[in-house]
Amino acid sequence: MSDQLIIFDTTLRDGEQSPGASMTKEEKVRIAKALEKLKVNVIEAGFPIASQGDFEAVRAVAKVIKDSTVCGLARALEKDIEQAAEALKNANSMRIHTFLATSPLHMERKLCMQPDEVLAQAVKAVKHARNYTDNVEFSPEDAGRSEIDFLCRVIEAVIDAGASTINIPDTVGYTLPAMFGKLIGELIERIPNSDKAIFSVHCHNDLGLAVANSLSAVIHGARQVECTINGLGERAGNAALEEVVMGIHTRNDVFTCTTRIDTTQIVNCSRLVSNITGFPVQPNKAIVGANAFAHESGIHQDGVMKHRQTYEIMRAEDVGWNANRMVLGKHSGRSAFRERLKGLNIEFESEEELNAAFVRFKELADKKHEIYDDDLQALVTDAFAMENEKVKLVSLKVCSETGETPHAQITLNIDGKEHSVAASGSGPVDATFKAIEALATSQANLLVYSVNNVTDGTDSQGEVGVRLEKNGQIVNGQGTDTDIVIASAKAYLNALNKLEFSDKQHPQKGAPV
Ligand code: KIV
Ligand code: ZN
User: In this predicted structure, what is the pLDDT of residue 19?
Assistant: First the structure.
C-alpha cells in the first residue's frame, strides 16, 4: 500500500455548497492558487454542468493551476461528463469525478431505479469519462448507508470500467469512526480488483465526526481524503483539511503514510477562505482558530515556558502562525505593493485596477501604519467585491453618545445616482443598517452579523460578515475597514448587491436533479 496520502480539496465545490458561500470566478482562482501553494494533490474546482458560472470558474482554475490535478464533478450522465471534460480540457492534469447513489433509500426514493440499473449506469458513466481522461474517480453517493454486498459489486464493476479512484462518501455524516474504518478495510479486502484503484473517503460532519471518520479510514487503507479548508461544506461541512493533515503529521507514530502538504501555508489558506466566503473561523477551532495555540491557565503557561511540549503537541509556526510578516507601510511605493501582491498570488487584469487598489492601500496606510499580508488580502477582496456593485457607499456619518439614541446619516450611489437618508437605531450598526434599508427597501432578513479583527492591535481592520436571506435565497457579504461601523455598512451593501442586483443564482443551484 502506498505511503502517500492524496489530499483532495473540495472547498471550491462542496465548500461552496455551504449556504451563502458562493464564490466568483476570480475568488475561486485566488483560492485555487493558494491551494496549489499549499501543495494539495487535487483541487475539485466545481460542478461544471450546474451553471455557466461554475463552468467558467472550473475552466479558469484549470487554465492557471499547474502543480495540482484539477477535478470537475459530474453526475453519472453523459451530458454532465462532457461538460466537465470541456471545462477541464486546458488543465495540465485533469480528473473527472462522477457519482451515483447506491443506498437503498436514495435508489428507491430519489433515483427511482433498481440496483442493477444503478450498476449499469455507473459503469456506463465511468466508460464515458474514460474517453476524455485516464484519471476518473467514481463515488457511490451515500455509501455510508449502502449495503456492503451491493457496494462491492458496483465498485468492482467501475474499477473494471476504468475508474482509478474509488471515493466512499459518508454523504449524510451518519457513520462512526470504528464502523467507517471497518467498512473501508472490508471493501479493500473483499473487492478482487481493489489493488487497481486508490480508495478515498469523503466525510460530512453532521455528527462532528468527519475528521475522525476520515482518519479511521486512513488507518484501514484509504489513501485519499477529500476535505475542505476550515471544514466548509454542505450543512455541517466536510472534514477540515487542516485537521486531517495535522492529525497525520502529528501522529506519525500511528499513520504509515504522509502527505506532501506544505503545512506552513495552512493559516494563510484558512484566512483567505474565511475572508472570501464570509464564514468566520471560531476562536477555538483546531489548528486555525485564534485560540488554537493560546494558553490561558497559569499552570499551562508555566509548563510551556519551561518546556513547550508539556502542553503543545504542534508548533504554531509549522502551520503558518506568525508567518504573517509586516510587509508594507505608508512610504511603500507602487512597485513594492505590486511585488507583495505577486507574492500572495494576486494579479490584476489591468493597470487601472492595480492603481485603484494602490490608492486604497495608501488610504489604509494613513490610518494603520503596519500593513500585513492579511490586510492586503482583505483589501483586495473588498476591491474585487465592490467593483461590480450597483449600490455603493458614498459617505456615512454616525453619532453615538452615552444617553443618546445612535444616529446614522448615509449617502448611497444607486445605479449612478446619489441618495441620502438618516435613521436611528439601538446602536450605531443598527442605525446604519436601518438607513441602508430605508433607501434599498430590500426587506431581507439579517441572519448573521459577525466582526473579527484582521490583525492584532486596536488599529486593526475589522472584518465584518453579514448573512442575508430573502425568499429562501441566502447570501454572505463582507466588508473591511479600520472603522467597524463603515466595515459593517460595506458588508451589508456587499450582501445586498448579491441578493438584489445579481442575476446570478448560486453557481451550483442550476444542476437539474
Ligand atoms: O457528499 C457527497 O456524497 C458528495 C459526492 C458528490 C461525493 O459530495
Ligand atoms: Zn459531499
Answer: 81
Greatest mean pLDDT among 32-46, 354-368, 463-477 = 32-46
Q: Which of 47, 139, 167 to mutate to test the pocket of ligand 1 (most atoms within 8 A of CB)?
A: 139
Give nearest CA residue, ligand 1 atom 3. 171
What letter does residue 162 receive in the DSSP assignment? T
Per residue in 31-40, pLDDT (tens digit) is: 999 999 999 9
Pocket probe mutation, ligand 1, options 9, 99, 170, 235, max atoms within 8 Å of Cβ = 99
d(CA 213, CA 236): 15
Asked if residue 171 has its Cβ within 6 Å of ligand 1, the reply is yes
User: What is the tens place of the pLDDT at every residue in 50-98?
Assistant: 999 999 999 999 999 999 999 999 999 999 999 999 999 999 999 999 9
Q: Can you give the three-state secondary structure of 407-467, one letter per residue?
A: EEEEEEEECCEEEEEEEECCCHHHHHHHHHHHHHCCCCEEEEEEEEECCCCCCCCEEEEEE
Q: Is the pLDDT of residue 503 over 50?
A: no
Run of H or E residues at 343: helix 334-343
CB 144 within 8 A of CB 180: yes
Contacts 24+ apart (CB under 8 A), 467-471: 467/19, 467/20, 467/278, 467/495, 468/442, 468/444, 468/492, 468/495, 468/496, 468/499, 469/444, 469/445, 470/442, 470/443, 470/444, 470/445, 470/499
Read off the pLDDT band of 346 (50, 70, 90): confident
- Burial annotation 423-435 (CB, 10 A radius, 16+ → b, else e): bebeebbbbbbbb
The per-residue pLDDT for range 266-309, each reduced to its tens digit, is: 999 999 999 899 888 988 999 999 889 887 777 777 787 888 88
How does DSSP assign 267-317, residue by residue? HHHHHHHHHHH--PPPTT-TTTSTTTT---SHHHHHHHHH-GGGT-SS-GG
Do 123 and 74 meet the contact criterion of CB atoms below 8 Å apart?
no
Residue 55 and residue 59: Cα distance in Å, rounded?
6
8 in contact with ligand 1, CB cutoff 6 A: no
Beta-carbon contacts of 448 under 8 Å, excluding residues fewer than 6 positions away, are 465, 466, 467, 476
Residues 16 and 22 sit within 8 Å (Cβ to Cβ): yes
Residue 344, SS3?
Answer: coil
User: Distance (Å, rounded) from C-alpha 373 to C-alpha 380?
Assistant: 11
Counting Cβ atoms within 10 Å, is residue 177 exposed (0-12), middle (13-18) or buried (19+)? middle
Q: How far apart are the first and last CA of the chain?
A: 37
Residue 34 CB-density burial (10 A; 0-12 exposed, 13-18 middle, 19+ buried)? buried
Name the residue with the closest Cα to ligand 1, atom 8: 14
Residue list, CB under 5 A from ion ligand 2 = 14
Distance between CA atoms of 408 and 428, rounded to whole angstroms?
7
